[in-house]
Amino acid sequence: MEMCRKLTSEEVELVVRTKSLFQMSIEDLRAGLDGLDSGCSHVHTDITLKLHSGFIEQLGHPIYCELPECSSPLRVIRAAMPHFPVLRIFTRLLYKAPKCHMTILAIDSALSCGNIDELIPFLGLKAKFSDLFSEDGVEHAVVSEDHSSSGLGCIERDLKVTHADLIAELHSKFNDDAEFACCSCERLCQRKQVSRVNFSLDKYKTDAWQRTKALVLQNGVTEQLLYICQYCRPFLNKNTIPARCVLNGLVTEPTPPELKSLNALCKQLIQRAKAFQIIVRLGTYLGKVPAYNALQACRGCMFFLPLPLNKTWDTLSEVELGRTDLLVAFPDPQLYIIVNGVPTKDKIVWQTLVDVNAVNLAIQKLKEINWLYKNVDDASLDEAAKNIVDVVDKASSIMLEKASTDDVAALQAYTIRSLDQQGSIKTDVEQYKMQNVKDSPIESRQRHLDVMCFPTLFPSGQFGEFHPREMHLSASEYAKSRLLNKDSRFRKDPKYVFFLLWQQEMRQIAAGIYNVLKTTSKEAYI
Fold first, then answer.
1. Measuring CA to CA, which residue among 183, 182, 370, 169 is closest to residue 258?
2. If DSSP states are collapsed to H, E and C, what string results for 485-505?
3. Which residues pair with 134 in a beta bridge?
4. In tens digits, what is the pLDDT along the chain, a chain of 526 residues?
5. I need a labelling partner for 323 at 20 to 30 A (CA). Which of 149, 162, 396, 428 fits?
6. Alpha-carbon distance 352 to 349, whole Å?
7. How many other C-beta atoms are found inside a 10 Å radius of the C-beta of residue 109?
């Protein structure tokens, strides 16, 4: 490269001017491409090459032109092309552009005149439009010898005939959505996987069928709309409760009204524990890895931190006590605070409007129905439950704290973004800030982690993965029962889905380690 002749300023200007043609209109581009070889008295555009298939025209200009005053842009680009890879790509585009432009003009002319026969060559067909239909009007395709040419689906009819059974099966699967809930396991199934239940028959008079009927009718479902899946029917016919039946500790409790209206931050404020997992979106890479085998995201380890629920409740109670003027003026005041999140790496602070009354009502409701929110010295708790409550009560950090004047002034150095549309309207409310929870994480093998971290999914703290059951239920079947349940709140919660995925990965790793420990080499006995 150092020994090659450098381009002069005039030649560089010719290359830049040629590149600017593609920023103009289509008419100006075509005019510029026609004059690409101008500036030379020799005519080099009518060169023909003899190939095995005949003669073709080729646009060309010899690199070594005998005229010293030759200023053809094509000659300059071809002379510099071996030394610059980008120019080689640009040269290929120059040769393709005139052909593409002529094709566009031909298609546009055929469309404007309504002449379909002129479009046939561009569609990979060798017949006229009138020849594509027989006398009875049935379409038939005339396939060209080169099936790789782009165009109409000329072989679509042959594919439909050859793979008619597969296409029919595909259409039936697409139309048969999983929208029929089994009255026993409450999983959504396809219509072919379920059958109707008629409790008036004698075979449905057994104890297992009657218990299932009583549970279903409590939810307000009529007997005419009851279905049973192919898995649960044989067990119930034998008067046995299936392992994945709702009666086996898989009841889906209705969400109390106090918990339905909470936003994401309010749900975090009422949790006993929090499941944290870092998910990183990978950037670009230069490795020669196929796109289908490329790693799109990387998930880190999941850990569980106990949240200081009692301290958060005390902080929110101070808000109510500090606004006694509202209690006098209004019988049912609405108390709001603005909670500022921890600044991110991009210097962004997310603000959320928190309804203090709603959070306090939710905590009071959970203290009434959820055993995890009771005190350790409560007489209704057994020793195992007291040990679990004692684990989550060890949180010593402060998650929510009132923001001082300096804290509010320091927020001006960050980009403030609101997660609530009402946050910009409520400008006269007090501001609080989130603190980093720094406590010892809970052991990942601790029982009842799902009911600790997701109180909105398990309001009473029951029917989790480790709920006592009559029939043994594997962890994978439990996850399927939750994700395929007719109540969509389990599969719509991304944090709960990632929690189930993490639990499954930990079980697979543990099983793999156990198998490795059982495997020994012959040298170990020598």
1. 370
2. ECCCCCCCCHHHHHHHHHHHH
3. none
4. 445 566 778 778 878 888 887 788 777 777 777 777 666 665 554 444 443 344 444 455 665 565 556 767 777 777 777 777 778 888 888 778 877 877 888 888 888 877 777 777 766 655 555 554 444 444 444 444 444 444 444 567 777 778 888 888 888 777 777 888 999 999 999 888 899 988 888 888 889 998 888 888 887 777 677 899 999 999 999 999 999 999 999 999 999 999 988 888 889 889 999 888 877 766 655 556 666 566 666 777 888 888 888 888 888 877 765 555 544 444 445 678 888 888 888 888 888 888 888 898 999 999 999 999 988 788 888 888 888 888 888 888 888 888 888 888 888 888 888 876 555 455 557 788 888 888 888 888 888 899 999 999 999 999 999 999 989 999 999 999 999 999 999 999 999 999 999 999 888 888 877 666 655 555 544 4
5. 396
6. 10
7. 11
Q: What is the DSSP letter of 131?
A: G
End-to-end CA distance of the chain: 65
DSSP annotation of 103: H
Positive or negative, the Cα torsion across 192, 194, 200, 205? positive
Q: Contact 288/485 with Cβ under 8 angstroms? A: no
Residue type, 479: A
Element (H, E) at 365: helix 356-369
Which one-letter DSSP state was computed for residue 7? P
- Secondary structure (3-state) at 516: helix
How is residue 283 written in tokens?
């950037």
The pair of three-digit structure tokens given for residue 179, joined into one six-digit string: 């929208």
Crossing angle, helix 494-518 and helix 475-483, to 10 degrees? 160
Q: Rg of the chain's alpha carbons, rounded to an integer?
A: 37
Amino acid at 387: N
d(CA 406, CA 402): 11
CA-nearest of 178, 218, 174, 213 to 194 is 178
